[in-house]
Amino acid sequence: xxxxxxxxxxxxxxxxxxxxxxxxxxxxxxxxxxxxxxxxxxxxxxxxxxxxxxxxxxxxxxxxxxxxxxxxxxxxxxxxxxxxxxxxxxxxxxxxxxxxxxxxxxxxxxxxxxxxxxxxxxxxxxxxxxxxxxxxxxxxxxxxxxxxxxxxxxxxxxxxxxxxxxxxxxxxxxxxxxxxxxxxxxxxxxxxxxxxxxxxxxxxxxxxxxxxxxxxxxxxxxxxxxxxxxxxxxxxxxxxxxxxxxxxxxxxxxxxxxxxxxxxxxxxxxxx
Length: 272
Known about the structure:
The chain has helices at 21-26, 182-189, 193-199, 241-244, 247-252; strands spanning 13-14, 38-50, 58-70, 84-91, 94-103, 123-135, 138-146, 148-149, 154-166, 169-180, 210-223, 228-239, 256-270. The chain is mainly beta and 272 residues long.
């Protein structure tokens, strides 16, 4: 397992004032006792996952993040693999807004066998999301994003989470589906004739857009107090279709993509 000391500071986001009825039913405990101002939540995140899409080597990444919500409201459920989001429409069980993700790059030092393959820089993926609670314990979420930097393609993620609270514990689990267009697929899974000639271990390959992976995410959170909470999670993705058939995956990587992480959160009141 490789350890890469990568750090990313994520932008803060603000939750809306109207909470979904479904989320209210799930998160019944009283919020922090403050009637005015904001509740600020500071998070320290530590994650381990594939060094690049399709890799069988793993890297660590640690980063802080912030979130805000109005005082007197409870915190919405958020899966650990959600993108950083800001909602501009919250109506009953529906939530719509903007979202963003950070995607690490692929570099020669990640795997010496990648010699001859083009370096891929890190990328940011801004986009939009839609979230819907059809039942009080079931959340559906879709994100559509466009890459800038390392890749210039469009990607989409779909997820379904069953969420249940047991005292101070909150447990969630659900399936995942990821898609990418041909630009995204060519960046991470394609091989040009020049790259194939320089590397010598792979053949030219031009993938098409479509489903890139299917998987599942599970998480468990514990609320130590109204201020402190801890979340641990695991993820599994299985590369499928043209992504799984890539010679980069078959020769140097794996179709099975595992991940895990831990988040420690501290909340406090703030009145401007």
